[in-house]
Amino acid sequence: MAVVNAKDMLLRATEGKYAVGAFNVTNIIQMAAVVEAAAEKNAPLIIQTSVTPTRLIGPGVLAAVYRELAEQAPIPIVLHLDHCTDLDLCKRCADTRYTNIMIDASKQIFEENVRQTKEVVDYCRGIGGITVEGELGTVTGVEDQVAVAEDEAALCDPDKAVQFVERTGVDILAPAIGTAHGIYRTPNPKLDFDRLEKISGLLNGDGPRIPLVIHGGTGLKPEVVKKLVALGGSKFNVSTDLKHALIDATFEYISAHREEYNPGKIDKAAQESVKRRIFYWIDLLGCEAKA
Ligand SMILES: [Zn+2]
Fold first, then answer.
1. Are strands 233-238 and 212-214 parallel, antiparallel or unpaired?
2. Are 73 and 35 in contact (CB under 8 A)?
3. Are 172 and 210 in contact (CB under 8 A)?
4. Which residue of 6, 130, 208, 251 has the fewest CB atoms within a 10 Å radius of its CB?
5. Catalytic residues
6. Counting beta carbons within 10 angstroms of the beta carbon of residue 126, is it exposed (0 to 12), middle (13 to 18) or buried (19 or more)?
7. Alpha-carbon distances, residue 27 vs 23, 44, 108, 224 (angstroms)
8. Cβ–Cβ < 8 Å for 32, 10
9. Bridge partners, 80 (sequence order)
């Protein structure tokens, strides 16, 4: 019942001026925690796996667990493949019924990005029920954030965004506006709000059509997150924050119970910690009770 793709969920969010949390998980314990937290808040949910855990656990296993959890949950849930540069893995995940695939060819020249993105869009259309996210401009790690934020060429060109969407048929767009992955090294990272507003106006000015994704949510101040959502960001990616919650809670539990050998209790402590962060993000993004 609650297995859905990202498009309709995010069109509703764009219309309602809130964002859906897209939370990266690296294992099944985390996946269950994220689902439990979103269900408690009655919030729509996007679960994401990046390429490394997807390969490690296997797309078929992740998709099967997702399906089992989502079918029993009272909320709509998407399973999304995050930042995949490998066309074959994009297709394999689509075959196992991930419901949203991100082909990230943003480091390629524009024409090649269009070609690869369109190839994944066509493949997913052939299967049906699977939507696709593309990226234009470069969302980097924090080590390159300042260079990218100051280099217009690395950010998403608004006119090219329109062309990109028209030529690829992509469902959802991640425009690079200066956000980055990891923990920001400055309390005020340079973000191009005007650029986001312009892209949003061009693509969704006449009504929601192409939902926009904000990458690199971890470490942004609450008022910055709210501003990005108000300007049209309807999918908000959070990864590093959840990794910290998981690893810190695991470390703290083991440190405090060094003589105990009970993995279930370690998992429980990690889950509780992840859930607290999900509650924080759902509250901030305004998606509570929007399921
Ligand atoms: Zn990202």
1. parallel
2. yes
3. yes
4. 251
5. 82
6. exposed
7. 12, 20, 30, 29
8. no
9. 48, 100
Angle between the N-to-C axes of helices 158-168 and 110-127, in degrees from 0 to 180, rounded to the nearest 10: 40
What are the φ and ψ backbone dihedral angles of 102, each rounded to 5 degrees? -105, 110
Ligand 1 center from residue 110 Cα (angstroms):
19
Residue 22 Cα to ligand 1 middle (Å): 10
DSSP-assigned states of every residue in 137-151: S---BGGGHHHHHT-
Ligand 1 centre distance from Cα of residue 220 (Å): 14
pLDDT in tens, 78-129: 999 999 999 999 999 999 999 999 999 999 999 999 999 999 999 999 999 9
Q: Averaged over 282-286, what is the pLDDT? A: 98
CA–centroid distance for 42 within its chain: 19
Residue carrying structure tokens 């959890």 = 69
Q: Which pLDDT does position 152 carry in this prediction?
A: 75
Q: Which two structure tokens, joined as six digits, stand for 41?
A: 């808040």
What is the C-alpha to C-alpha distance for residues 94 and 60, in angstroms, rounded to an integer?
10
Residue 167 CA to ligand 1 center (angstroms) comes to: 23
Under 8 Å between Cβ of 135 and 148: no
Tokens of 188: 């005020």
What is the 265 CA–ligand 1 centroid distance (Å)? 31
pTM: 0.96
Q: How remote is the CA of residue 291 from the centroid of ligand 1, in Å?
A: 24
Alpha-carbon distance 245 to 157, whole Å? 35
